[in-house]
Amino acid sequence: MIYRGIGEKIGDLYGIGSQVLVGYAIAFTISWECTLILLGAMPVVLVASGISIKAGFAGVKEELIAYQ
Length: 68
Prior knowledge:
The structure is a single chain. The chain is mostly helical. It is 96% helix and 0% strand. The chain is built from 2 helices and no strands. Helix 1 (2-30) packs antiparallel against helix 2 (32-67). The longest helix has 36 residues, at 32-67. It is elongated and about 55 Å long.
């Protein structure tokens, strides 16, 4: 169960990373100003990702405790 959860999260990480790169490429081809707006929003996205990762690790710890 834990390995399946970690595997899904790694797959999601690759998917999100590729979506971000494609988004920047499309934004740059449309307008460089749009790319600047996306880069300006990056700190907010990183903070939200950090909170999500922290919550995910807390869930894994709870599952390990419940599994034992």
